[in-house]
Amino acid sequence: MKPVTTGLLRAVIVLLVLGTLLAQLVVLPDLSLSLEYRYPEAAHLRVPTLVVSVIGLVPLHVVLVCVWRLVGMVRRDAVFSPAAFRWVDAMIWSALAAAALALGLLGWLTGATQDTGLQPGIGLTLLGSAVLAVGVGLLVVVLRGLLVKAVGWKGEATALRAELDEVI
């Protein structure tokens, strides 16, 4: 892979990390405060929902760190090695954690707002987030399978090259 491509990808990762940090520190607290004023009957849900929402972006940070590390392995031409599995597995678990957090928040909010009813947009957003996270996790599982095959083929190619060197 060209250094320009990996450099651009790393720049995008930095922008995503900065954007999610901005969301965690500024946007989500401001949004929860405005929702508290707009829906005073649900004001008691503000802090727990804000905490879970901020924590919900942590799996995205983990995935971005894993992609950063894998890009570094690509630059060093070491991505087709068993060391890459640690980062890919962390991405899978992070996606599952994000889905669990979204579904947990959806369940908790549904129970906490039984008398007033949960806003459909919030419920659909959380459900969509969970489905998206599971989809990303499954996609990474498929890509992990491809990585397993590539690592195996690289091992076979190395063994065949060693045999060929002995013959010559």
Automatic annotation (TrEMBL):
TM regions (residue ranges): 7-27, 47-71, 92-110, 122-147
Superkingdom of origin: Bacteria
Pfam family, any one: DUF2975
Transcription regulation keyword on record: no
Annotated keywords: Membrane, Transmembrane, Transmembrane helix
Name listed for the protein in its UniProt record: DUF2975 family protein
Annotated source species: Promicromonospora citrea
